[in-house]
Amino acid sequence: MRIASWNTRSFGNIEKGRMVGSMVNKYQIQFLAIQETMVKKVKQPILNSIWKHFVFQEVQVSSNGRSGGLLSIWHDDCFTLLNHWSNRYWIATLLRYTLNQRIVLIINIYAPQSEHDKLFVWQQLSAIANQWSGPISFLGDFNSVCHPEERFREVIDPIAISKFNNFILSDNVIDQALCNEEFTWDGPDEKMSRIDRVMVNVSWLSLFPDSILQAGLQKLSNHKPIILGKKLQDWGPKPFRFNNSWLLQKKFITLCNEKWDSLDYEGWAAFTLSMKFRVLKCYLRE
């Protein structure tokens, strides 16, 4: 099984859908947890861009204005939904995994900033975990760290760290080590932290003993996607093949110019240029 989590910092346009779809295809993701959609409901064309040629199912939680919003989406050939529960901060999905017919519980989490509200969420998640003896995975943006070293150029709150570790211990889950990165979030003034994480119980580890946690490339958000599953060999990006015959089409240059001018991204110059080239490349491929 290969599952992933990504705080995409909004998920309301087709370009982001295509880029998430590219990550899903690259890492062969079967279940995806997205945080901070920032929309009441992710529209169907955006969902279709994640798995273009496959049937999928999803559960969503609406944002509160431009804050929050959750999406759990999975490959229909890989899972059968048995039940689900949700609130503003999490989506719990009870699924039957097609490959071995085992039932697993996967909980997509976007924890609040307030330490008081976090404690309430930890209590809710603990109640769910303690009622389920099968394989379980918590994944998402916890807005918390386990150790002071997981924050760089940020204020350290020892009490908050202690409460978060108590939550992990009380649920008998294991925080998966990130094997290829130190941090998952980049903030202003070179601040960094590892607030995106995956936790699993012993039953999950017994079922998927070869799983490792990796971070993907940071493209469309200040969070990196994180992927739990068997390690894939990365041969680098596929080369973009430009067909000279395109230049013979009368409308080719006009279409490129119109698409380029329609793209608007905020950030430093190199970032906006890179984003516009990526989107234009996807547009030309289609």
Q: Treating each run of at least 4 consecutive H or I residues as one helix, how many helices?
A: 7
Determine the N-to-C terminus distance. Answer: 30 Å
Low-confidence stretches: none
How would a textbook summarize the main sheet?
Answer: 6 strands, mixed
Topology as a string of helices (H) and strands (E):
EHEHEEEEEHEEHEEEEHEEHH
What is CATH's topology name of the largest domain? Answer: Deoxyribonuclease I, Chain A
Q: What is the helix content?
A: 25-40%
Molecular shape: globular
The overall strand count is 15
Topology, please?
Layout: E1 3-7, H1 14-27, E2 31-35, H2 44-48, E3 56-61, E4 70-75, E5 79-87, E6 90-97, E7 103-110, H3 115-130, E8 136-141, E9 151-152, H4 158-170, E10 173-175, E11 185-186, E12 192-193, E13 196-201, H5 202-207, E14 212-215, E15 226-229, H6 252-262, H7 269-285
Parallel strand pairs: 1-2, 7-8
Antiparallel strand pairs: 1-15, 2-4, 3-4, 5-6, 6-7, 8-13, 9-12, 10-13, 11-12, 14-15
Helix pairs in contact: 3-4
List key phrases describing it:
alpha+beta; Deoxyribonuclease I, Chain A; 286 residues; 6-stranded mixed beta sheet
Description of the structure:
With 286 residues, the chain is an alpha+beta fold. The protein has 2 domains: 3-229, Endonuclease/exonuclease/phosphatase (Deoxyribonuclease I, Chain A, 4-Layer Sandwich); 244-285, no CATH class. The chain has 7 helices and 15 strands. The strands form 3 sheets. A 6-stranded mixed β-sheet has the order 3-4-2-1-15-14, with no helix packed on it. Strands 5-6-7-8-13-10 form a 6-stranded mixed β-sheet. The longest helix is centred in the last third of the chain and has 17 residues, at 269-285. It is globular, with a radius of gyration of 20 Å. The two termini are 30 Å apart.
